Amino acid sequence: MKPMFTTAGMTAIALAVVAAGGAVATPAGRAETPPRKPHKGAADCVPVSGAVCGTVRVPLVRARPELGGITVAYALIRHRGTSRPARGTVTINPGGPGDSAIASASRYAQMFSGLLTDHDLLLVDPRGVNRSTPVQCGTLESLPATRDGFVRAVGECGRRLGTRARGYTSAEIADDIDAVRARLGIERLDMLGQSYGTYLMTVYAQRHPKRVRSMVLSSAYPLDFDMWARPNARAARRALRLVCERSAGACDGDQVLRDIARLAQRLRAQPIPYTLGDQQRRLDDTALASIVYNLAGRAPADIGGVPTMVRSALHADYTALIDAARRVAPLSGSALRQVEEQPFNPEQAAAVTCNDHPTAWNRKAPVAARLRQFSARLAALPEQEYWPFGKQAWTSVSYSRGNACIRWPDRHGQPQPTGLPLPDVPVLVVSGDLDADTPTEQGRQAARQFRRATVVEVPNVGHIAENEPSGCVAAIQTGFIRDLQASDTSCLANIPPAPVQP
Q1: Whole-angstrom Cα distance, residue 420 to residue 207?
Q2: With 0-12 CB in 10 A as exposed, 13-18 as middle and 19+ as buried, what is 116?
Q3: Which partner from 115, 133, 284, 426 sits 20 to 30 angstroms from 147, CA to CA?
Q4: Hey, how many other C-beta atoms are within 10 angstroms of the C-beta on 70?
Q5: Burial of 382 by CB count in 10 Å (0-12 exposed, 13-18 middle, 19+ buried)?
Q6: Which helix (H) or strand (E) holds 453?
Q7: pLDDT over threshold 70, residue 355
């Protein structure tokens, strides 16, 4: 989610870069124009051999043509064996929402190099992102340092977008992908979604079932997911226990969790001041929960440092904890941490999240009533479900769950339907067993949406398992797309455990 504005969220704001510049959606009344032809070999395509780029023109809101249109960009990477037609076309979405598929062209071409021998790759930038008419509301480029400030900024973003905000939904993005498919004359697609992309590809399958040949859902979560992030809290506990179980005695998972509980209580009472750039910030229990949540998502790279980081902080050495805070930019507040390679649009992410996702309040109620409803429902949740973090802290971590959209002004838009029929096609769900963002528990829920789904849990990795360096997971996914079955997963046994810092 980083289903989403993370996560679930999702991929996450805290792991994203704000796209610079960009125009707003086309003003109302502008006539729709015909699709542009691809510009083959153009310098502004992507730095991948065999790629062609193009755009299609689509309505901003298909049900309201008077709102005008926007441009959706795509890159088609042709297979290398040009003497024969492609066996199929794989379309990939990297998640977010708010992430650019086209910006990841080189990475995908390398990751799925074997697939490119006989398959084409189709990358479509979601509307509002990067090359697809970037959207701006002017409130989320520099986020405030508190959860309340973030929630208010999201609400103000929706107010500024006004009627245009309804153009940014997963349904409209799915229909854009299908418009590109039709423009290119592709009969069926193999869908590969990562994080929020698993949500988007499921929406596409709902809306265009006859155009789907197979689906690979990496770091998946279901359409009807828990807005209170309880599976994520369970997954964070599990991840720390697994890391310690595999550490050859370097740490004890239950002791680490008890240490986190003690540190969270201390930070709740006495937050630690620190600086992030020119910002004065506070490291409190919410920030601690956010640090653990994000480090689990990056496993195995960073999660092995959690036991020592927490133990040192309990002995008043906050060096490692503050260093982690500066890398993660956690919620106690919430600021964007830049990742130079990946254009990310938080305004688009906010709109898609707040338009689509279920809520913990009545959407039709005014803000004051929503705030009361959310507080009452949060108060009714058992505190123990969120141990060792605390429910107030844990539900404030995610940019897409909890109260993130409580001030979104639209009281009439319908959330994304969750119960529509899905095609009977082969589905592969891949989950990292250390991922607290889109845990295997939610991956299995996503799999149950389909009749023919296989779940592969990848040991010792976190969010987006195919990012692991051996190429094992990408090879499993490639084999599934080719043969419609995950026949050989033996390489998973060779993925090493996360190293635990002494």
Answers
A1: 9
A2: buried
A3: 133
A4: 29
A5: exposed
A6: strand 453-458
A7: yes
- Asked if the bond preceding 3 is cis, omega within 30° of 0, the reply is no
Q: Are strands 69-77 and 119-124 parallel, antiparallel or unpaired?
A: antiparallel
| E strand or H helix that includes residue 429 | strand 427-432
Taken in order 280, 282, 288, 294, the sign of the CA dihedral is: negative
Backbone angles phi, psi at 430, to 5 degrees: -120, 125
* Other Cβ atoms closer than 10 A to 182: 13
**What's this model's pTM, rounded to 2 decimal places?**
0.91
Instruction: Reply yes or no on whether the pLDDT at 2 is more than 90.
Output: no
Half-sphere exposure for 304 (CA within 13 Å, toward CB): 17
Residue type, 213: R
Continuous segment of H or E residues that includes residue 93? strand 88-93
DSSP one-letter string for 473-498: HHHHHHHHHHHSS----GGGGGSPPP
**465 vs 427: CA distance, rounded Å:** 16
Q: What is the DSSP letter of 450?
A: S
Instruction: List C-alpha distances in Å: 310 to 99, 153, 272, 313, 378.
Output: 32, 32, 14, 5, 27
Determine the angle formed by the axes of helices 285-297 and 230-245, rounding to 10 degrees: 60
Do the Cβ atoms of 298 and 432 come closer than 8 Å?
Answer: no
List the structure tokens of 234: 């369970």
Chain mean pLDDT for the chain: 89
CA 392 to chain centroid, in Å, comes to 22
Question: Which of 115, 123, 47 shows the shortest CA–CA distance to 86?
Answer: 115
Beta-bridge partner residues of 215? 191, 427
Residue type, 53: C
Q: What is the pLDDT of residue 342?
A: 64
| Residue 399: predicted pLDDT | 87
Question: Number of helices (H) and strands (E), helices first, in the chain?
Answer: 14, 13
Among residues 131, 226, 135, 144, which one has the least CA distance to residue 180? 131
**pLDDT of 362 higher than 60:** yes
Residue 428 host element (H or E): strand 427-432
Distance CA 353, CA 225 (A): 13
The one-letter code for the residue type at 442 is Q
Query: What is the spatial order of strands in the sheet that 427-432 belongs to?
Result: 39-40, 51-59, 69-77, 119-124, 88-93, 189-194, 212-218, 427-432, 453-458
Range list of H helices, 185-318: 196-207, 230-245, 253-269, 285-297, 306-314
Q: To the nearest 10°, the Cα dihedral for 359, 290, 231, 469? A: 120
Is the predicted pLDDT of residue 7 greater than 80, yes or no? Answer: no
Given this model, what pLDDT does residue 43 score?
A: 57
Distance CA 337, CA 362 (A): 32
Check whether the bond before 34 is cis (ω within 30° of 0).
no
CA distance 434 to 300: 8
